[in-house]
Amino acid sequence: MGLYFINIDKNKSYTLVGAGCSHTQGCAFTIYKDNKFKWATEAIKNKYNTDCTPDFVTNNLTWMAKLSKYIPVDKIINLGLGGYGTTTSVRHIKEYLKTKSNINDHIFIIQMQSVFRNEIINKIFKPHSTIDSINHFLNKLDNDGLIFFVVLYIPISFFLNYFRIIYFVTKIVKTIFSF
Hints:
This protein has helices at residues 22-25, 42-48, 54-60, 63-67, 86-98, 134-138, 143-177, and strands at residues 14-19, 30-33, 36-39, 73-78, 106-110, 117-122, 129-133. By secondary structure, the protein is of the alpha/beta class. The longest helix is centred in the C-terminal third of the chain and has 35 residues, at 143-177. The chain is flat and about 45 Å long.
């Protein structure tokens, strides 16, 4: 995909959009239990001495929060999701872009994950669901299905899909910045 350098106007304020897995989400600091976020350990709870919320984690503990100290950021959008891959990140960015008519004040950073973390829409097993990790899908296959899946599906579909995603992201970057 490549590395693109952009000029950041220090007199302008930006919305920083980060997409990725747990390193982006910041979920190592928290656990989600009983429909609410809690600090992962008593030591973390004591250190920050505040309510555990996704906003606090995003704006104070993630790499996006650290980066916002060096560039003028007035808002951080955290599209990270622990355990998921690049296909999920790109889908979240597409959904976010549908809600915006102008992204000239946005900086997007995508943390690329393993090629084997691809979103699979499960329509084989009931209930239908979205599975992101290859391991979740493999655990449900019998031996014949596993052989077909490993020999044919992984090399062809996963790698082609990953490169399609990289192409999509590159195309967006080139369109926005007219490379």
